[in-house]
Amino acid sequence: MGLEGRIKATEGSESAASKANVDQLIQQAVFGKEQQPTANLDGSAAFTATSNTRADNCKVDTDGKGATSVAATIICLCATTTTHLTASPCFYTVDGPTEWNGQKDGAQAQWSAIKKFCGLQTDRQEPTAELIETLLDETLSNLQVTEASKAHLGAYLATGCSGTSSAGVCVEYTITASDPKPTLDKTPWLTKLRAASRQLKQAEQRAEATARLTTALQSEIIAAMNAAAEAAAYTAQVQPLKQSKSQDSQKEVEVDCHKHHGNNTTCPKDKYTYDEKEKKCNPIKQAEETTEKAGGKDGKNESKCSEAKTEDECKKVEGKIPEGKKAVCGWIEGKCQDSSFLLNRKFALMVSALAALFF
User: Fold this and answer.
1) Which ranges of the sequence are coiled-coil (predicted)?
2) Do the strands 329-332 and 335-338 form a parallel or antiparallel pair, or are they unpaired?
3) More reliable by pLDDT, 65 or 179
């Protein structure tokens, strides 16, 4: 496959790495379902435990139920409860959110109050695979393996994450202590963000490959154009020398020939012909006759081709067949023309199109 085909194959390989699909995965990870950041948080999507208690909604068991979204995790880490551990777990304010005991229908009020303290962003940073992985690593590095099968994110004291002063304001994860990563990676918001990261990485790799191939194709086009320019310059230099040499040779022939004017006996018949009427020894126009037999006084086939009036006659014209063609002439644009005309024209159009594409 040529460079152009490889570029098309690379660009056409959209698959699951489209921007829209990555956006959907990130929305599902953050909110529990696809929605815009300005929409109200759906508590039933953000929290998936069967009960409405904080202890159940602020943990992720082996079945993946509980605080299955980023928003749910933040609420579990920052919301106060009626028997609170601290009045302000995540921030200091006299006007904090109302107390929350794990009710899904109260998630929107908590989210609306808490997200105001996440900081003002004047520009939205486009997600990249590296950015997502960095944020995940920073978050998971704060996990504490507190028991053989439990890890906690946040302020943990003992016995779950109910938000009470005797327990903790946290999220509890069921893990295998010897190898916690596989069980942690089953957490829905982690799974979604990992998938988004992989797809972004694939898209970034395709973009890099396309850029490399495009640069290589540009280099090939430039090299071809330079070669054509060098060939044209060489022809322009050599042609006058050939013509000059031909003219000098012709003069030498004429000088030698004129020695035999008036003497038919000494006029060499292999190179000259004697004109009895003019009593002159003249050069034989062998080169011109050979050229005309090949198809045209200039070594081309235009004269013979133009004489054909139909496509059938055009196919039957005899002469020198141009390299890469099957016939002397071709029926081109409604008339019989030299086959090399179409070949040269196609090459010129191809170079022009490629140059316009990249320059």
Assistant:
1) 190-220
2) antiparallel
3) 65
